[in-house]
């Protein structure tokens, strides 16, 4: 069974009533619209929580539900346009059912002032752990993604409008100056007959200095990127400790002065933030993995692409007076070549001297001359004499057929010029007396 989140002190109504701070904030609230202890619509104001330019926020107890909520009330009851916009804010908030957007539970009027009841939340703490920071930042971008998908631009993202619920999740509040443009929710405003479907009056500077994007303060066109700018400023403020490079880059992209330079969406910001979080929590493990992978990649031989040796690269000249041939191989370019069967070099010719009746056998070898630059793979050489030129690497098996006559003399003889290389694939004990290395001279 999951353990329930610990109940925070600010959610204890009796405790809140007894705290000196709550009483002082309630008693010193100037121009307040409510009185602690009065009752209306089943609600009882408990304590004063704060005040904005036009509204007050109170903590109230719901006598029916036996639970505490926050109540936002318009303090000015004389401005009819402000009252309509305040009601629009409540109706638009009520359209969302998202864990990171504040929920509206009921609306009403008290002494002619409109109010709405919402979740009771607490402000961000002054110091956050990194785990709390990432949880809050991800909640912020999730809330903005939900608003932007519905065509709503918040336009006043700041620390005072980002609160926490009892579980510690971020909750975005206050759509008092939000813009809804051509959102499906625009009918809520258009029902009043306004030409500019925005909750606040258009054509004026909107937002909080320090958080607002430049286009908000200069009266330019405002879109969702303005919220991302403010979010960048906010996460830069609340991040605990020294920021790592990837997070700095993300913040710089968010707070760019030109909207076109900012990250394109809140969803993309959330994805990048998860990448930053992953790197920060597992960077040493990731670095160790990358180092191991790099070492393994360096140790393992790379896969070589072998090309067929072209026919024009081989010239065969019979040796006069013998049954042997001279093979001249010129590698076309610096590459890896494999003989497709052009060179016939796997036998030697036994002779019985110039006099056929002689019983003293001797033999002559085919001669193979390899020049150019590159690597040549002749799979099995037998009974020949191979001359390997400089800048050439010859790859061969180093073995002969088991049934070859006089096997000791069927091993090929190699002559290596300076800069030449020889590699055997099937043996590491080739007779060294058959390798004439000119490189040592």
Folded structure, characterized:
This protein has 3 domains: 9-118, Phosphorylase Kinase, domain 1 (2-Layer Sandwich), CATH 3.30.200.20; 130-286, Transferase(Phosphotransferase) domain 1 (Transferase(Phosphotransferase), domain 1), CATH 1.10.510.10; 307-440, no CATH class. The protein has helices at residues 13-18, 20-27, 80-94, 130-149, 187-190, 214-217, 224-238, 245-254, 266-299, 407-410, and strands spanning 43-51, 55-62, 67-74, 104-110, 113-118, 162-164, 170-172, 307-308, 314-318, 325-330, 336-338, 349-351, 362-364, 366-371, 374-377, 384-388, 392-396, 413-416, 421-424, 435-437. It is built from 10 helices and 20 strands. The chain has 441 residues and is an alpha/beta fold. Helix 4 (130-149) runs antiparallel to helix 7 and helix 4 (130-149) crosses helix 9. The protein is 27% helix and 22% strand. A hairpin with a 5-residue loop joins strand 6 and strand 7. 31% of the residues are buried.
């Amino acid at each position: 069974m999951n353990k329930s989140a610990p109940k925070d002190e600010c959610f204890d109504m009796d405790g809140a009533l007894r705290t000196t701070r709550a009483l002082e904030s309630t008693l010193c609230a100037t121009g307040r619209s409510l009185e602690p202890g009065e009752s209306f619509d089943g609600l009882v104001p408990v304590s004063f929580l704060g005040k904005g330019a036009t509204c007050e926020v109170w903590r109230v107890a719901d006598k029916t539900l036996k639970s505490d909520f926050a109540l936002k009330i318009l303090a000015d009851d004389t401005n009819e346009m402000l009252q309509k916009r305040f009601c629009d804010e409540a109706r638009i908030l009520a359209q969302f059912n998202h864990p990171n957007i504040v929920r509206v539970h009921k609306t009403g009027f008290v002494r002619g002032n409109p109010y709405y009841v919402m979740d009771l939340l607490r402000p961000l703490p002054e110091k956050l752990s990194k785990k709390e920071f990432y949880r809050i930042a991800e909640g912020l971008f999730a809330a903005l993604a939900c608003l932007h998908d519905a065509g709503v631009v918040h336009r006043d993202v700041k620390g005072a409008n980002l609160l926490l619920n009892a579980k510690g999740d971020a909750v975005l509040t206050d759509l008092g100056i939000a813009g809804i443009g051509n959102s499906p929710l625009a009918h809520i405003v258009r029902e009043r007959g306004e030409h500019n479907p925005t909750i606040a009056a258009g054509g004026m500077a909107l937002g909080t200095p320090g958080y607002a994007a430049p286009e908000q303060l200069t009266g330019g066109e405002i879109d969702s990127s303005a919220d991302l700018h403010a979010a960048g400023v906010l996460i830069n403020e609340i991040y605990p400790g020294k920021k790592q490079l990837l997070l700095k880059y993300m913040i710089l992209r968010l707070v760019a002065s030109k909207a076109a330079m900012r990250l394109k969406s809140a969803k993309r910001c959330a994805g990048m933030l998860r990448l930053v979080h992953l790197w920060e929590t597992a960077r040493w493990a990731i670095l160790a993995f990358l180092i191991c992978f790099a070492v393994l990649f360096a140790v393992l031989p790379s896969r070589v692409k072998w090309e067929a040796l072209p026919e024009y690269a081989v010239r065969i000249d019979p040796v006069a007076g013998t049954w042997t041939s001279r093979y001249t191989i010129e590698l076309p370019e610096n590459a890896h070549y494999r003989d497709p069967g052009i060179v016939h070099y796997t036998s030697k010719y036994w002779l019985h001297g110039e006099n056929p009746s002689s019983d003293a056998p001797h033999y002559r070898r085919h001669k193979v001359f390899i020049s150019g630059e590159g690597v040549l793979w002749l799979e099995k050489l037998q009974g020949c004499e191979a001359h390997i030129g400089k800048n050439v690497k010859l790859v061969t098996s180093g073995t002969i057929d088991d049934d070859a006559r006089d096997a000791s003399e069927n091993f090929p003889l190699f002559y290596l010029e300076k800069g030449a290389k020889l590699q055997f694939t099937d043996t590491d004990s080739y007779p060294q007396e058959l390798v004439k290395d000119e490189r040592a001279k």
